[in-house]
Amino acid sequence: MSVQKWVVDPSHSEVSFKVKHLMITTVTGYFRSFNVEVETEGDNFNAAKKIEFTAEVDSIDTNDEQRNGHLKSADFFDGDRVKQIKFSGVKYEGNGEDGKLTGELTIKDVTKTVTLDVEYGGIIIDGYGQTKAGFTVTGKISRKDFGLTWSAVTEAGSIVVSDDVRINVELQLIKQA
Fold first, then answer.
1. Global pTM?
2. CA angle 49, 51, 55 (to 5 degrees)
């Protein structure tokens, strides 16, 4: 069987993250510019040979320009020096609808192995004749594990930003001819 290439459909995909603020509410952020490339044997994602993801640090959007600037600074993602967040999948184990994706996540200069949950939505041919595959990828990481250690405490003793970051990726891939 031949290698099949898949690329992201950016208008039907999104990359978001959620972080607790003051431990009472959750702030959502997005990476507006990202890329995904996958190589499979035929249409079998269980035998994926390549899963590569990148997100542009400069595209971070939390609906607040001041916070976006702080996240791009050396306190967090260090966007002047480090342009991308990268994930390289090393193993996907799926049983139809559910799976686990393990790979190397690099944020700033730190690379760690992470395992993410994958919900496989299926494959369909759209109205333009394109074959598409859908996935929801979720997980949780510790921001401090990746050198994003900025912290502050309010006068009352509340932590400003939690350590846990929840990741959610809604992904639609387009099969390449």
1. 0.90
2. 165
